[in-house]
Each structure stands twice: as structure tokens, then as C-alpha cells.
């Protein structure tokens, strides 16, 4: 095994927290390892908040650049995991982007356009996907984030609460309200056909 | 276990009861009221989750990681260490880095200019002759003996 491969293997075995300490010292290999390890994961989080591939990629890139430029912003003394802190960075960038773009929201009682002349009563898969997407976009911001982190990312309630900077009870309340709203609205659409 | 309580846990932890926190899971399995009604609730939740899973998703470009690493390569690495900076002082520190640290010659020139302006705009005690200077200093505006 040559030196470079050995070094890469060493970095591969390091924790995120150890890597970010190396990044603070300007270690490019450690930064590359973090990017390789996590870029797809944080892309998923960003995509489910902005629903646009290019925007989600830009957000993840911007978040990593922030990490490279100012790694000391992650405070190891606060005892928070790197992933918790970096989730917060990505989520905040998504919030900023969504507030600038003002997402389209499905209005109450909006009709679903069915282009098929001989369409059956049931909605096709693509339509269902689009409706679900609009319903999720229509959720209050914090409920949307709670659903994204807890349901889609499978993050524990406790860590999601830390990411969002709220208490555990508040996070659970956001998650329950978000799911209940979605459940009711999807039921309404399905019944309407 | 009450229906409302069970529903709450379904919402929080999903339809896979096996994945629920151990303490709560034990309560469910130990309770005598594990009825068909609760099983219906689990089935409903599973259907709802299948619907949620239909949310459209686009995979990222295969070059995303490479782009991130390349873009960082165009930025200089940060040289400051975390010990030098705390959250409260970071704004001032960044301001210092931005305006003063890279331009020491400019900062020195600015200091000199300010010094000359202040110096020439005020009459100095040194302009008075020596004796008057001491008297003026000692009695500063009061009647002199």
C-alpha cells in the first residue's frame, strides 16, 4: 500500500469531528473525505426542502464551502455532533432560498387538472406525486422540516429537535401536526378522485 | 394502551413497531388491549407511509462531490484556529481581518493622517512659553495668585 492510499484509509477511519478539526488546519484531504462521505445525504435533505435538483446541489455546495472557509464555526466545545450542526447549516440555507423564491402553494379546493379525455376516476402516479409535493410545500415551514428530518431522513426526534433548535416536545408536536395535516388533505384528494 | 396514545406513537415513530423505542414497545406488547383496532391503525399508517414514499426525488449529478471539492480548491484555506475566535468576538475578528490585517500599510498611513489632523487643529500647551505653560497647567482656568 503506497503512502497516499494509506493516508486515505486513515482519513476514511476518522470520525467526522476529527476530520473537521483537520479541516480547521486547512487539510484539503480531510475536507474531500467529508464531502465524499456526506454530500449525497445533505443533497437529499436539501432536495426535499427546495424540490429542485440544481438548487439543492447549489445549496449543498455552498454549505460545504462555508465549512471550508469557516470551519471554526463548528464549536467542538458545544458537544454537538458535526452532522447536527451541518444539517442546521443546510436547512438554514434552504429556508433562505425558499423565502426568496416564495414557493407555490396549493390553494384550498384547487382542482386537479386531468388531461386524459378518457381518464378514469383514479389519479395516476405522477399526479399523486405532484399533489403530495405541493401539499408538503404547503405545510408550515417548521412542520415541513420536522417531517423531512424525522420521516424521510430517519433522524431521531432528539437529534431533529437539536437541529431545529427546539425542545423535544415541540419537535414531536410539529411532526404530529404535519403528518395529520397531510393525512387529512391526501384523504380529501383521494376521495375526490 | 389507549387509542390516542397509540396514534401519537404511530405518528412519531412510524408503522414499524419493532423500531419504536424499547420502553414504549414493551408497553405495547405487554398490554392486554392489543386489539384488531390497533392493528387497523398500524395498517392505515403503513398505507399513509407508502403514499409519503411516493414523493418525487431526483438523484444528484454524479459529479456533485467532485464539484464541491474543486470549488473548495479555488478558495484559500482558513489559517485562523478555532481557539483564537469565539462566537461573540467573531464579528469583530472578521471585520479586523477584512479591513486591517491584509492592509497594514494603509492602516499605518490612516493613523498618521488622523494624528496630524488632531495635532494641528488644537492649540497645544507646548506653544506657550515654559513658565506660562506650568502656571496654566497648575491653575487650569482658576484665578492665578
CA radius of gyration of chain A is 20 Å
- Poorly predicted ranges of chain A: 106-121
Mean pLDDT metric of chain B = 74
Measured between the Cα atoms of the first and last residue of chain A, the distance is 62 Å
Largest interface pair = A-B, 49 and 33 residues
Q: Tell me the structural class of chain B.
A: mainly alpha
**What is the string of SSEs of chain A from the N terminus onward?**
HHHHHHHHH
Tally of contiguous helical segments of chain A: 9
Q: Portion of residues in helices of chain B?
A: 55-70%
In DSSP terms (H or I, runs of 4 or more residues), the helix count of chain B works out at 7
Low-pLDDT stretches of chain B: 81-86
What does this structure look like?
Chain A is mostly helical. Helix content of chain A is 72%, strand content 0%. About 8% of the residues of chain A have low confidence. Chain B is an all-alpha fold. Helices cover 59% and strands 0% of the residues of chain B. Chain B contains seven helices and no strands. The longest helix of chain B is centred in the last third of the chain and has 18 residues. About 4% of the residues of chain B have low confidence.
Keywords:
heterodimer, A: 193 residues, mainly alpha, 9 helices, 72% helix, elongated, B: 145 residues
SSE topology sketch:
The complex is a heterodimer of chains A (193) and B (145).
Chain A: H1 3-13, H2 16-24, H3 28-50, H4 53-69, H5 82-101, H6 125-137, H7 141-152, H8 157-164, H9 168-192
Chain B: H1 3-13, H2 22-30, H3 36-52, H4 64-73, H5 90-99, H6 104-121, H7 130-139
Helix pairs in contact in B: 1-3
Amino acid at each position: 500500500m503506497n503512502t497516499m492510499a494509506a493516508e486515505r484509509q486513515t482519513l476514511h477511519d476518522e470520525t467526522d469531528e476529527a476530520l473537521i478539526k483537520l479541516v480547521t488546519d486547512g487539510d484539503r484531504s480531510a475536507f474531500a473525505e467529508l464531502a465524499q462521505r456526506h454530500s449525497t445525504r445533505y443533497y437529499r435533505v436539501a432536495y426535499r426542502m427546495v424540490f429542485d435538483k440544481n438548487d439543492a446541489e447549489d445549496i449543498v455546495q455552498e454549505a460545504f464551502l462555508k465549512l471550508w472557509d469557516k470551519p471554526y464555526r463548528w464549536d467542538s466545545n458545544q458537544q454537538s455532533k458535526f452532522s447536527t450542526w451541518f444539517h442546521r447549516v443546510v436547512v438554514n440555507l434552504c429556508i433562505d432560498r425558499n423565502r426568496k423564491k416564495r414557493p407555490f402553494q396549493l390553494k384550498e379546493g384547487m382542482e386537479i387538472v386531468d388531461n386524459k379525455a378518457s381518464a378514469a376516476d383514479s389519479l395516476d402516479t405522477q399526479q399523486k406525486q405532484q399533489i403530495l409535493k405541493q401539499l408538503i410545500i404547503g405545510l408550515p415551514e417548521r412542520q415541513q422540516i420536522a417531517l423531512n428530518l424525522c420521516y424521510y431522513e430517519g433522524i431521531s426526534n432528539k437529534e431533529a429537535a437539536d437541529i431545529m433548535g427546539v425542545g423535544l416536545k415541540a419537535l414531536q408536536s410539529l411532526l404530529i401536526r404535519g403528518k395529520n395535516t397531510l393525512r387529512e388533505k391526501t384523504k380529501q384528494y383521494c376521495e375526490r378522485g | 394502551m389507549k387509542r390516542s396514545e397509540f396514534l401519537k406513537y404511530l405518528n412519531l415513530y412510524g408503522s414499524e413497531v419493532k423500531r419504536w423505542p424499547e420502553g414504549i414497545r414493551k408497553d405495547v406488547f405487554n398490554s392486554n388491549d392489543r386489539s384488531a383496532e390497533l392493528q387497523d391503525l398500524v395498517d392505515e399508517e403503513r398505507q399513509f407511509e407508502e403514499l409519503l414514499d411516493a414523493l418525487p426525488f431526483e438523484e444528484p449529478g454524479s459529479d456533485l462531490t467532485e464539484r464541491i471539492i474543486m470549488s473548495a480548491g479555488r478558495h484559500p484555506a482558513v489559517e485562523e484556529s478555532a481557539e483564537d475566535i469565539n462566537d461573540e468576538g467573531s464579528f469583530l475578528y472578521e471585520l479586523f481581518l477584512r479591513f486591517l490585517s491584509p492592509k497594514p500599510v494603509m492602516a499605518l498611513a490612516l493613523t498618521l493622517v488622523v494624528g496630524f489632523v488632531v495635532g494641528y487643529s488644537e492649540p497645544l500647551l507646548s506653544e506657550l512659553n515654559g513658565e506660562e505653560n506650568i502656571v496654566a497647567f497648575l491653575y487650569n482656568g482658576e484665578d492665578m495668585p
